[in-house]
């Protein structure tokens, strides 16, 4: 990729739009408002909410709807267009939203910032932060791993830090913590709307925010001040009663829910929790549940604001935020009804599209896996299932922590059973790893003696980073690739090969307490609720039910100064240097626009069977180092996909019958100017917000993807990069298409020209026989998205505006 002289672009048009946006940020919320006693964030929310009530009247709204609609750029346009005068918003309206902030982790921030740089703006339109958490390999322990990670990735960290300085972004250095934990501790306040360049960003829903995982192009839209578009989600209600007890934890609630809904059950929905059981949960417990909403495909998840939420704000030294939230909920709006007040809960009488009721008192621990987060088994049945399925009975490792489960409550509950085992003379039989979610958590656990309990037991405390959860794990136990083995983790995702690159490692998801107890047993068939272990002196030991503290008795320790956030005003003189010879970073070249006709001459590169996740399309682990270099990372495209016609992994065949890896063949076809498509099954692109899973195929020559269904984030990412996502009208048509077939679109160009209106078909010419088939397909392309595709990508439109 050639270097681009960004300074030569004038950026007049976008700069004017940006200046107008900045002016609105300063004056817009006060122009027609008499509000004088609310902080700016809540003043803006108050005024927008008043508009929502004016447009929708007394219509009952869920909490998610209240926050989401109160962030619309134009309330009337979004809520009244094609919605039966506001009565049928869910699933129909195209919401154009103005988020409050954007949060980016280091792996995805590279491409997001490279795209933002192309717009040639002096600063972002809204606050944003960068979190260096994905690139540290977990291996020997925190200090050694962090030092090695900084040395290996200094070029990327320097790039991100310089970009933060130039554009005025918050910068969290390597070792400061995992993005979702850091956001919960520092930025999340009730009523906020945030975008995060990671699928588990909804973690902040535990603090009653609307936080949505997106790709980098989506983030750039928000960063330049453009409205961000979202099809109005339906709302799935989960009503909680009772109270968790003994071994049951918040993690078990979402593991159980994943089993009920499957990895596709939440697609197109926001999951909203309510009911008296909510009041019994900690803020961090609610965050755990929201975090793993990504595993059921939900747009996001949210809880009401509770007394536990206020306590968490206070313990994280944000007393004023708690006071502001209380003031806002009691601040009157227009009219005399209860609707004039914005309450961080659903309106009385609000209706959900679906409702699930769960009694927490009856919930037992669950273990999910292997290879998919929705294969849920109650702990009481897990031993029998392991034996029936012939899964490994030996446990190789237990790993706790991560962004999902590293709260003070999680860790003190684990500490209670570790201390009991220590007193009985027991040590873990399996390797035991602990990942603190942030420096604040690490420092507080160290201050209060919890980390010392883990280390005394033989636990290895890793860096405050994603580590093994995202595939950054260098195992020390001699387990080689191809060796079937079992691990238990308190992580959120367990796709095949995700953690250690070994396709035969089975990762079972559970609460930190269950993971720890089973690590002591060294067995996947051990049930800590009913079974006993034998101590060195021959006695029987049974773990006591875990107990812990919701939060520390004194506020959290902020930790070492080196890990504090670097906040700064934009510095236009800061130079962002990217070496032309860099193997880690490369400036972007624009993708070619859509041709002024239907597509023709496409060939099916590969027909994929089974799961095709974002890990399948663009693997993480060692490939994370190339996140800022599109040509290099494209060498992993679809490299763990299963060829539906041969059942081979990462194998594709050229038109002459020669055998290649999938990325090798894609590269060959790119060099031959042969455009291509992929045919796949359900939930294509399941998993992370990884926009590289859209960028890489686009770079290599993909023009359409056709499958039975898409995961939400990935479908959006494809459209943002100019790839057209299509689904079969008749799922059995999947069987009619094969690798090497020639495909032409019918009606696609006209549909795009008409702003997403119109039907599309595929004309398939069978390889070998020349037989022609006409296959109807569906699309979900909006007017704005049609514009992105025609332009070649969303970035092309933004950068075009910058050059006018």
Shape type: globular
Total number of β-strand segments? 30
**Strand sequence of the main sheet, in spatial order?**
21-25-26-27-30-29-28
Percentage of helical residues?
25-40%
Helical segment count: 25
Structural class: alpha/beta
Gap from first CA to last CA: 24 Å
Output the radius of gyration: 26 Å
Summarize model confidence as the mean pLDDT: 93
* Percentage of residues in DSSP E strands: 15-25%
What kind of sheet is the major sheet? Answer: 7 strands, mixed, barrel
Residue ranges: pLDDT <50 for 5 or more in a row? Answer: 1-34
Subcellular location: Mitochondrion
Family: Belongs to the aconitase/IPM isomerase family.
Main location: mitochondrion
GO molecular function: 4 iron, 4 sulfur cluster binding; aconitate hydratase activity; metal ion binding
Key traits:
seven-stranded mixed beta barrel, single chain, 16% strand, 804 residues, five-stranded parallel beta sheet, alpha/beta
